[in-house]
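Need the bound structure for magnesium ion, inputs here:
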Amino acid sequence: MPGEVVIGDRVTVAETRGAWTIESVEPRGTTLVRRGRGGRAPKVLAANLDRVFVVVSLAEPPATTELIDRLLVLVEASGIHPILLTNKLDLPGAHEVAAELSSTYQGIGYLVLGASARSGEGLELLRDELCRGTSALIGPSGVGKSSLLNALDRGLALRTGELSVKTGTGKHTTSSSRLIELECGGRVADTPGFGDVGLWGVAAEDLASCFPELAALDPCRFRGCAHLQEPDCAVRAAVEAGRIRESRYRSYRKLHGEAAAAR
Ligand SMILES: Nc1nc2c(ncn2[C@@H]2O[C@H](COP(=O)(O)OP(=O)(O)O)[C@@H](O)[C@H]2O)c(=O)[nH]1
Ligand SMILES: [Mg+2]
Ligand SMILES: [Zn+2]
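Answer from helper R.:
Posting the output first, comments after.
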């Protein structure tokens, strides 16, 4: 018998008198994994994803670079290079924030898309990425993930504007995963638990490999350098020389501190 089957798995099924059973699960390509904190086992959330979008809002309120870095790191920890999707371009000040974020994140190799589910701006570029293969959107609730999908595919009618409530008997509570089929041909993994990023632990020693511009300086002066206060650290030198953004290094230090404390 196969183990747990997750969204995106490719399986072989067999039918016996009208009942379908899963006989085997093909070896997985990519997996998006949420690591367990405090001794909990890691959990595979989805498999065989072609693209993962980190979705944040440009306004009301704009995403902090700390939140963005946290989300990017979680995806990088699964060995997937995410796309940064910034939404709500229609709101005042959003273009300025978008320009700033593009400069930071394109500079370190991320594709950065700006869009507005409301005005339709940027949706064509998003369509190019979402309408091929299987994608997942991760990000906090309220940034417009469902609205963006609705804007791309008028037939979907996903619910929007809902507060995420952990308990309660809300009739809309999504508890199971599914693949949303877009009319343009792409598939989007809709999996509860992509949003509550606080639960996704990454080990302190794996953290630098999840920051591409830090990983590029590896090995540092000596193996196992944590890039905190070690002498002659190439990462700290790059921060001082302005080749690594201070906001990124600040996020690294913060996440490193959390990871070390959670051990
Ligand atoms: N101004 C503006 N509001 C948006 C946009 N996209 C979504 N919203 C609003 O943001 C709220 C949350 O949207 P929703 O799609 O439910 O976010 P999700 O939780 O990430 O799926 C809703 O009130 C939407 O109407 C946008 O591009 N511009
Ligand atoms: Mg939603
Ligand atoms: Zn170092």
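Comments: The first strand starts at residue 11 and ends at 16. The chain is about 25% helix and 20% strand.
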